[in-house]
Design brief:
11 helices; alpha/beta; single chain; 6-stranded mixed sheet; 2 domains
Length: 324
């Protein structure tokens, strides 16, 4: 490969700062929030998937929602976008209350999302998928749809906008191909491009890098950064901490359904609550010493863990005795 064929090195872009007011704690107020959520709770049987007292998403910034598997990130996404209903709670988007509002109405207000598993319609072409993303189409009305002269001009404008976006996402050569023929990474690009057809204010991305070929990773990162530069707000779920550090202006950490930490990426990565959420609160304890398999001194953390294990064993024994 010649030097001219090598991909350009990623350009470092300035982070947005000054997003919060007061001390940085879970639920800290933002200077200009686009989403404000209070008392959001969602249970499935006896499992509490989301239990968020208060959280705000800053406007015109890229916010990452991180946490271990099962933390409640995607469930919170589903609640905020109208794909699921909470047991209780209220939230607003750009001043509009979204409680009880369906997903299609939420999207019309300018809040759109993509999915961890892409939702491209495989038996439609790439261009047709794009055109579906445009809102307020005249031809969607059954009666107006029977009169081409009413919607033909708008249809041409929508197609022109779709082609511009496909060129930007380097999918224009695939415009006539069925969406089912695209690779996983190309489907991610298509879904993001289709979301932009509705000219949103807030774009929510659920694990945009999941299953993406490394060759397309930088392209996706650049497109996400472009969204902010074009005046949009981005909220994304991601497990790739390198990506989070690289593009996020603000990070919100969830564990067991709750927001346990938030702040700028570098600060959050050092937060003990975040380390505990990902690695466990006793990640620095040698279990061999605790169990007695290895000789060594028990520090305070090891003693605490040993006591927890002993208490758990005693409770299990009591349950066996009582038959519960």
């Amino acid at each position: 490969m010649s030097s001219n064929d090598m991909p350009a090195a990623p350009v470092e872009r300035a982070k947005t700062t000054g997003l919060h007011k007061g001390d940085i704690v879970p639920g800290v107020a933002k200077v200009d929030p686009i989403i404000i959520a209070d008392g959001i709770r969602r249970t499935f049987g006896g499992l509490t998937a989301v239990n968020v007292d208060h959280v705000e998403i800053p406007r015109n910034a890229i916010t990452a929602l991180i946490g271990p598997n099962g933390a409640g990130k995607t469930t919170l996404f589903n609640l905020l976008t109208g794909f699921d209903k909470p047991d209780e709670g209220k939230w607003t988007f750009d001043g509009h209350s979204l409680a009880g509002m369906g997903a299609h109405k939420v999207a019309r207000l300018g809040q759109v999302r993509t999915f961890q598993l892409t939702k491209a319609l495989g038996l439609l072409t790439v261009l047709e998928n794009m055109k579906l993303g445009a809102k307020d189409q005249i031809g969607e009305n059954i009666f107006r749809g029977m009169i081409p002269s009413l919607w033909r001009k708008q249809e041409a404008e929508i197609e022109e906008r779709a082609i511009v976006l496909l060129k930007k996402f380097k999918l224009d050569a695939k415009s006539s191909d069925f969406a089912a023929s695209l690779s996983g990474g190309q489907r991610k690009l298509l879904e993001m491009a289709r979301a932009l057809m509705s000219q949103p204010t807030l774009v929510m991305l659920d694990e945009p890098m999941a299953g993406v070929n490394p060759a397309l990773t930088q392209s996706l990162l650049d497109h996400i950064l472009d969204l902010k530069e074009e005046g949009m707000t981005v909220l994304f779920v991601e497990h790739d901490m390198h990506m989070v550090r690289h593009i996020a202006d603000w990070v919100i950490v969830m564990a067991e359904g709750r927001v346990v930490a938030e702040g700028p990426p570098d600060q959050v990565m050092k937060d003990q609550a975040v380390i505990d959420a990902y690695l466990g609160s006793h990640q620095d304890v040698d279990l061999g010493v605790v169990t007695g398999r290895i000789e060594g001194d028990l520090n305070t953390a090891a003693i605490d863990l040993a006591n927890e294990v002993k208490e758990l064993d005693e409770n299990i024994a009591k349950r066996k005795e009582t038959g519960k």
